[in-house]
């Protein structure tokens, strides 16, 4: 299978709600956050996202919930083709993710909740499950891409858990996802 698309969530392709505006790169990410494939595409580092930059706007609330919506256009196809979509998601702290192809929800299976792509630490974890702030969760979906244009929409709702006694500035918030689409054709 050939790689048809590899894309990360970026401020250019991702909206954060609230406020319903482009997501913002986190300028000082937590140093123990995991990476997804070294967070580099074509030699360009990829940023973790939030709805504001916690460094310049340190009022990111512990307990805050933000929904990120990423829209990705696939190459135009001259024939319908079966494809495999692989989604890798990091979120500090918990998250839920959904995927849609051309506006139709697609179910996917979580295949590996712990991915070798960054440090997995055992200290400082949240006090309640799920302990996702130090993990990358991977899901896989089998889809059929239509003739012509196809659009994938990734929607992830992230909760930055409240930690009693810890000020918001010490409770980082961030999100990053990678989407890969594999098909038996090359474009």
TrEMBL record:
The chain crosses the membrane at residues 72-91. It comes from the Bacteria. The keyword Transmembrane applies. Keywords: Membrane, Transmembrane, Transmembrane helix. This is Uncharacterized protein.
